[in-house]
Amino acid sequence: MNAPPLPDHRDSREVVIVGAGQAGLSLSHALRQRGIDHLVLEKHTPMHVWREQRWDSFCLVTPNWQCRLPGWEYTGPDPHGFMTKEQLLPWLDGFVRHVDAPLRCGVEVTRVAAARRGGFDLATSAGPLHAAQVVVASGGYHRPIVPRLAERLPADVLQLHSAQYRHPAALPPGRVLVVGNGQSGAQIAEDLHLAGREVVLACGSAPRCARFYRGRDVVDWLADMGYYDMAVQDHPLREGVRDNTNHYVTGRDGGRDIDLRRFAREGMQLYGTLEGLEGTRLRFAPTLRESLDNADRVYNGINASIDQHIARLGLAAPPPTVYEPVWQPEAERTALDLREAGISAVVWCIGFHPGFEWVDLPVFNGRGQPGHLRGVSAVPGLYFLGLPWLHTWGSGRFSGIARDALFLAEQIQARAAGRAAAASRRAADAAVDIATA
After folding, report:
1. Membrane-spanning regions, if any (predicted)?
2. What pLDDT is attached to residue 144?
3. Which of 32, 167, 208, 360 has the smallest number of CB atoms closer than 10 Å to its CB?
4. Which of 350, 383, 406 lies at the terminal end of a domain, its last residue?
């Protein structure tokens, strides 16, 4: 970006936090405890994504006991259950009230740039602003990904991104094509399938995991084994783990596995990766068998690591099991005609692009992702919070936000103290100069 520098102005804060989701508000809570001047700017309303970009039957895929925001933990009667959207939203609204952040809603930040006088200049829809430090807490999922071939689909085929999907009855009669089988794709396909809709699912390479294994939720086992505390630099993939697709599983109806093979046995049509469109004919890669096998390999691999943990500690638990496929594709199907199949709607579940163009500072890699260490960027005073694998696997979950926010609050406090000490030294030196003049 080569926009001219923003003008100097008087409205200045020590810290500006951009985004009032669980990350931004968690940091606000930590800064307020430290008495650090700050302002939270939110383009929409607090927790907007949870309210506006989740379907009606949405529920958490991690158990309620992991809902541990700063000073606001889940205290309901079902710690090992999974809050539905109707239950989650009041809990999040309670956190908003609990934090009582210095918040301005309906304010969009359109640019953050280095200021001539130090710190950062922000251009916002409410006017210019200066901050000594800035925290980008707007998440990492900004622009829904929809492939260019979508432009060539017949006009009478309804197209939605997963962020727009609400419930099966909102789609026109006919078969529904769901593209992508990550967490959202698999759960939306299940939602449609359970409602009696005919579903065609184009599968990618998403892994899966068991909901329960050897008498406990798999999340409970993995938490005991330290998986949610593993730092990104200690992971075998290092920063590459940030590109991994989340495992698909569901907390619906008390929690269960999502087994695409069982869905296929019940009538769902599974295909490999969607590759192209010629007229009304969709083209798929012959990758279905490989995708299903890889998902099961991950599933059994996670369970095997739990087996090793149980054996190593000599824990009492039900005997181990290994998942055996309940269905196999007879052959790879590589084409489907939209008209012949009666496809009336497509739900794109292939993720989001990052949208940090408004951050006019040299901290991004070639894929538009910010470079950082535990949220601390290479530009002094610029931080990121609320990103998947910001520091650990728990960073993108309610369970890890408090730790990440506390760490950044400590960095911010130290930098503010350093700036204050430097200002005091300059003032003292100036006083000496005047006295000896």
Report:
1. none
2. 93
3. 167
4. 350
